[in-house]
Design goal:
Number of domains: 2
Strand content: 25-35%
Helix content: 25-40%
Largest sheet: 8 strands, mixed
Shape: elongated
Number of strands: 14
Strand order of the largest sheet: 6-10-4-1-5-12-13-14
Distance between the termini: 36 Å
Length: 276
């Protein structure tokens, strides 16, 4: 996905040795989706766009029959079992449940193999200010940690591996997969299945919307280095211990990076960013 020039990425950190190293020797950590804290991560529902089972079965057969001669043994077995069903409804039920299980199995493998780095975004249309209270509370030790602001384009371009960047879609309902369309794309136009399943990792419940999350997808998990020039500034939380603030200021000066302070505005429930 193309990153707009006005897009900013942020990452919130607790204050500890590992996270200091993450900015002094810049790297991002790509986690496996199976390690995420959202219990609904990757769930989905499935459907077809046909009202009647007979229509669905006809569409499925029109895709499978031309490929029968060169199909894999598994696909041939599915074709045979569909043909053995007593009616269209039973055949479609078998196909959908079988395909849904395959989707679940493949999605589970992605959860264990892919690496994802979660960032938070800001654009002119969606400023960050109203989200800061929860972000500092949840991800930066209640204003005892720090926040890094990145030049989004520089960050993506300088990461030491190929990544895909996608914004999270927030919804009241889990994502749905059109099973017949998926079958068509995979068997007739050779669309990479991974693209389909990544959609499952780009949808979260609407309650997470305050995060404006952006995800970077990689084939590998673990550390990925990037250029120090991708860091725009570091903002330290007001409740960070004074000796830690001094250390942060010293480190940022050595890195030639601006460092500022996020402090509570006592007149309202907001933070203000000031010079440290």
């Amino acid at each position: 996905m193309t990153i707009n020039s006005d897009t900013k990425f942020y990452k919130y950190y607790a204050f500890n040795t590992n996270n200091l190293e993450a900015i002094t020797h810049p790297y991002l950590w790509f986690s496996k989706p199976s390690d995420f804290n959202d219990p609904f991560e990757g769930i989905f529902d499935y459907h077809t766009n046909y009202e009647k089972p007979e229509e669905t079965l006809k569409a499925i057969q029109s895709i499978l029959r031309p490929l029968e001669s060169q199909a894999s043994s598994t696909t041939k077995q599915i074709i045979e079992i569909i043909a053995q069903q007593s009616g269209a409804a039973q055949a479609v039920s078998f196909f959908c449940s079988n395909t849904a299980q395959n989707i679940f199995t493949y999605a589970s493998s992605i959860h264990k193999q892919k690496g994802i780095c979660c960032l938070f975004s800001e654009t002119e249309k969606h400023p960050l200010s109203e989200k800061q209270i929860l972000m500092w509370s949840h991800y930066a030790q209640g204003l005892k940690g720090f926040r890094v602001e990145f030049h989004a384009e520089k960050l993506i371009e300088s990461i030491d591996r190929k990544v895909q960047a996608h914004p999270i879609n927030y919804s009241h309902q889990p994502p749905t997969i059109d099973i017949v369309k998926l079958l068509h794309e995979q068997l007739t136009i050779n669309a990479p299945p991974t693209e389909q399943y990544l959609k499952l990792l780009m949808t979260k419940h609407i309650s997470w919307k305050y995060e404006s999350e952006f995800r970077l997808f990689s084939e590998l998990d673990g550390q990925a280095t990037y250029s120090p020039s991708a860091i725009k500034e570091v903002v330290v939380g007001e409740k960070m211990p004074e000796n830690s603030k001094k250390l942060m200021k010293k480190i940022m000066r050595e890195q030639s990076l601006p460092v500022r302070l996020a402090r509570i505005n006592k007149r309202n429930y907001e933070f203000e960013i000031v010079d440290l």
